Write the structure tokens for this entry.
Amino acid sequence: MSKLMISIPHAKDNTDKVTVGFVVANASVASGVETAIWLSVEGVRLAVPGYADTIHEEGFSPLKKLMDDFIAAGGIIWLCSPCVKKRKIDEAGLIKGATIVGGAKAVEFLTTGGSCITY
């Protein structure tokens, strides 16, 4: 099976990149590709319940819908552990489907046949 990681280091600081990243992720997972989103830096904030609810770029579905669709289709959302800790995000209160992992998880995914694009 093909594998694709989409790295998103942005949140409300660049909602266009965040939205397009999730659009591509949805296309990937819908095509049968094992798809993981790697949220790092400010991107980890997207996993806080309610944070993404108001993000809606013109011409695209609302980000909350894109995220829900991605998770429902079997997509994986990983959060950079040090990035979560730096921002003092409550690890117990994340959106459904989000998992905090270390960088080794991303490395393993990529070194076992995964490709990566960054938004």
